[in-house]
Amino acid sequence: MSDSEDVTRLLHRARGGDSGAVHRLLPLVYDELRAIARRQLRGATGGTLSATVVVHEAYLKIGGERGLAARDRGHFFAVAATAMRQVAIDHARERSAKKRGGGAPHTLLDGHDLPVESRAEELLVLDDALTRLASLDERAARVVELRFFAGLDVEETADALDVSTPTVKRDWRRARAFLYHELGGEE
Amino acid sequence: MSRIDPADWKRVAPALDEALDLEGAAREDFVGRAFEGEPRLRALLRELIKAEDDAGAFLELPVALDEEGSAEDAMPAPEVSGYEIVRSLGRGGMGVVYESVRRLDDFEQRVALKVVRPDLDGEILRARFARERSILAALEHPNIARLLDGGTTDDGRSYFAMEYVEGTPLTRYADERRLTVDERLALFEQVGAAVAYAQQRLVVHRDLKPSNILVDENGRVKLLDFGIARFVESEGIDASATLTREGARVLTPEYAAPEQIRGERSTTATDVYAMGVILFELLAGRHPYGDSREGAYEFAYSDRDSESLERAVDATTGDAVVQARKTNFRALRRRLRGDLANVTAKALHRDPDRRYPSASALMDDLAAYREGRPVAARSPAWSYRASKAFHRHRAAFVAGGFAIVALVAGTVTSTLLAREAQREADRSERAIEFLVRMFEDTHPDQARGADWTATELLERGADRLASSFADDPVVLGQLERTLGAIQLDRGDFDGARALLGRALGRPGLEDPKAVRLAIARVEVQRNAIAEAESVLTTIDEATLGPDQRGDFLESMASLRRQQARSAVAESLSRVASEISLARYGETSAEYADDLDNLAVHVADQGRQAEAVTLHERSLAIRREVLPDPHSDLAIGLHNLAYVLDQLSRSDEAVARSDEAIAMQRALYPEGHMTLARSLRAHGQILYRSGQLDAAERAVEEALAMTRAEIGAQSKDAATCWNELAIIAYYRGDLPTTRDRFEHALELYESELGPEHPETLGIANNLATVQAALGELEAAEGTMRDVLARRRAIYGEGHFAVAFSLNALGLVVRRQDRLEEAIELHRGALERYHALHGDEHAMVATSRIHLSHALRENGQIDEALEHARAALALRRAQLPEGHRDLVDAAFGAGACLLDVGRPAEALPLLEEAEVGLIALHGASSDRVALASARLGECLVRQGRVDEGRARIVAAVRALEAARDAGDRELRMAREALDRID
């Protein structure tokens, strides 16, 4: 379990442009989110959880009562979105592996896709496409990450990325166009 | 719809934004006018607009996870004609796999039938499914599960049939049958064959792991599951150079390459990485980063190098691992060292460009290993670097130390050897990196969040090491030796001495002679000459090997040089160079090193011209044998520049020095003591050629770098202050000069002690400034003291004694004790002449000082003789306006004036005045005396008013600036008297 002081300190440094700090943040936040996700799934909310809730709970834990300073908060969510994306994929895969149980020792396939609601395959393909988008239009991809994987609304996203709300809206629109287009099929 | 090309996106995206801002007719208009003449882009724009319109609530709902199952279990078995479904084998994302029996006529075949899931969106899935099928169709290899058939089920779903493989996952197979290391390698060969084959067909698997690699009853390996494989897009050029643009999120991080985890591009090198992990597991029985997925993420996002096979078998390795390889602990450890570890490390390199580029490259190297041939994983430059002679001339003794590090920790060897040496960057920096990492490993709480500079690490590391390795004194000794070597390399001589001394006392130290040699070097560097000699005499020369003998001789040579017995030093150096010539040949770095050193000793004996030739020869060899940039090239250039400077060939010296500095900047972009020292030397050459501003910048930079690297309380910092003081002195800024010398002296006294020869040198400098500021008695006292000590340390004939004699002569002369001054300057001149011959700068300087004293004492003829000689020399060597040349001109001019030859004196005195004005400013009092004498000359030439005016002005200037009893003022007044 990560120490929330560490994360805060790393956030400060990441804000200062220390890319090493950003790198070290990711696994810490990832751990945090996973722990929270696991806890939630195990019981309280009846076995479902939403990414939004997970991310915000992680924020509370790390930011404490006073929360984080505005720019640190933005950074936190940015990192959290990336980590949450991974958690979502990992979690579902874990689950599908567990489901198969002891069963056949000589499986031909190891579960490598994940069902997410009924949009199993789409999430994987979406992930692909999102990565492609990132190489063409980085900020737009980040917007998607923040909104879809961390459940932030437009204002929060603008905060996290340090841009204006109209910019976020435009990025979002463009990203959706790209992604929906890409998901339409591949050669 | 095909994938969007990035160039297209760049152009269409802004138009898309604009179009989406509009509605209805306005939008249509805009689109209709967009991309005139480029129908393709306009079509793309339309498609994207349509996509956005159609998207509806796409992505609007954040992702949510569900713990309950989805309705997948209740999936009916499909009906596929020709196949009889036996049972379900498992479910993947795209489809379900069934064991089936295929019936064709009388022929029965067991197959694995993969069918698309019925509940998922058809369009996307069909495409992916089709791709997997086409990939499999392209592959036909005994080690790859074969595609047999494909089609559509009765209810319209896609399927394909694959060879049914009944087998055990690779690692489990090897363990269950207790395969030896060789047998495992043989098994791995099959894996390699499969992956290499697929890569030849431009397929990257991207999800290699033991569970995807089964071994059947017959011991045949079968590679499965090309589910996320990709074709590498080829565009008619080398396929491995173009990459898929996909970065599918990694699904099995334990086997994923770092670039995959980070979502970057996957290439054939990605598969190589996975193969590396599998090989590691197969051989060592565990995963490179323990068994955690977190380990894989950590690694991907950190800067660490991957773990080494050599470290994999250690105290924590269980019996099961050893027994599963049918061997014992020690044998296994021995087996997993050396080239096998190197090959694995190269496959596991975090940088995909540094791995094997393809599976077949990896397999080739493994084959080489098994056949006992040299492997590619060891780069040829390493063995060159490892050669001791390579470093001989440098004080740093690290070659031996590095081998020790490798033995101790393994990690360093693997990463270094597998890494291609592109530049001869400082190996101590890498060792420091390793140590930092090691430190972080052992003290993660202290390391995390801290910014370690090398200095801090070395300071704390030394202590921590002692406590961490208290139980293992052998290892501790080796680490101390390495740290000591690093500190020596970085110029921290005191630290190096301490650590190397400790290492010497540890048990089981390998090659203690080498450590003693290193200590001797340190002592030489610290000018602790007596200590150095005593250490060296404990080494029996007869018992040294040829390389060590060369080292030993070189150390002795450096030592002797310090004591100015340079003839001895020279012959010792010659022997050393003959050894290397015989051993390594003429075109070798070792021979070049020794030539360079020999040249230094030759120069010290005053044969500068010969030294230049030797230096140039050494440089030529180095240029041929070494890459550019290279630290030895830089050193060679510096050495040459130094001698050129001694010959007053300033322009050439500056040019060489510039080249050396540029090279070292390339080598040490972050700064380093070697660069700092070079900058200092460069500064010296610059100010001696008159470029004061550039010199000051260079030395200031050197000082800053020195402070950063080893701290402000260091001998090197003190030397920088000394140089800065000299520059200020040349500028004529005496107060600053004195401040800086005082600073330097303080540091020298505390670092080296008040009796140290170099401390004495600084004291002498300070005394000179004191004299310049008029504190003559104090200055004289200090100087006499210094002179006496130098005589005792160096003997009468030494240049340091000569220098002192000149300095004392100047002070004495200013107190009007002219005969004493003459004696002193004569003494200096004699010594310099004996040491350096006629052409040397110091000889000229001495002559000038002597000539001034003689002239002032009325011995004009002799004065003129010396002044002339000095002037000729200086004029040949120095640029116009150089202060030494100006001084010489003045001296000669004044002499000529005094013997009654004003016509000849005039141009010289004019030159002097002009020069001094350029140096000090028109209103400076330092110009005054020259002006006065020039005025006198003009009067003698009949230009009375002009001349007189000059003298009067000069007298006034001096009256204003100096005390009543000032000599120059008196001499200027005398000039006035003479013409009146």
Which features does this protein show?
heterodimer; A: 187 residues; mainly alpha; 8 helices; B: 980 residues; five-stranded antiparallel sheet; 45 helices
Biggest interface, and residues per chain? Answer: A-B, 81 and 81 residues
Can you summarize the main beta sheet of chain B? 5 strands, antiparallel
How far apart the termini of chain A lie comes to 44 Å
Radius of gyration of chain A: 17 Å
**Content-based structural category of chain B:** mainly alpha
Let me know the number of strands of chain A: 1
Largest sheet of chain A: none
Return the string of H and E elements of chain A: HHEHHHHHH
**Number of distinct helices of chain B:** 45
Description:
Chain A is mostly helical and 187 residues long. Helices cover 72% and strands 2% of the residues of chain A. In chain A, α1 packs antiparallel against α2 (19-42). The radius of gyration of chain A is 17 Å and the shape is globular. By secondary structure, chain B is mainly α. Chain B is built from 45 helices and eleven strands. In chain B, the strands form three sheets. In chain B, strands 2-3-4-6-5 form a five-stranded antiparallel sheet, with helices on one face. In chain B, a hairpin with a 3-residue loop joins β2 (83-91) and β3. In chain B, α33 packs antiparallel against α34, α34 runs antiparallel to α35 (757-772) and α41 (883-898) packs antiparallel against α42. The model of chain B is unreliable at 67-74, 231-251, 379-434 and 438-454 (pLDDT under 50). Chains A and B meet through α1, α2, β1, α4 and α5 of A and α1, α3, β1, β2 and α4 of B.
Q: What are the SSEs and their pairings?
A:
The complex is a heterodimer of chains A (187) and B (980).
Chain A: H1 4-15, H2 19-42, E1 48-50, H3 51-63, H4 70-100, H5 120-136, H6 138-149, H7 154-161, H8 165-182
Chain B: H1 6-21, H2 24-33, H3 39-55, E1 64-66, E2 83-91, E3 95-104, E4 107-116, H4 122-138, E5 147-152, E6 158-163, E7 167-169, H5 170-176, H6 181-200, E8 203-204, E9 213-216, E10 221-223, E11 230-231, H7 258-261, H8 268-284, H9 293-301, H10 309-312, H11 319-323, H12 329-335, H13 339-347, H14 359-370, H15 380-386, H16 399-409, H17 411-418, H18 427-442, H19 444-447, H20 454-468, H21 473-490, H22 493-504, H23 512-525, H24 529-537, H25 546-562, H26 566-584, H27 589-604, H28 608-625, H29 631-646, H30 650-667, H31 673-688, H32 692-710, H33 715-731, H34 734-752, H35 757-772, H36 776-794, H37 799-814, H38 818-836, H39 841-856, H40 860-877, H41 883-898, H42 902-920, H43 925-940, H44 944-961, H45 967-979
Antiparallel strand pairs in B: 2-3, 3-4, 4-6, 5-6, 7-9, 8-11, 9-10
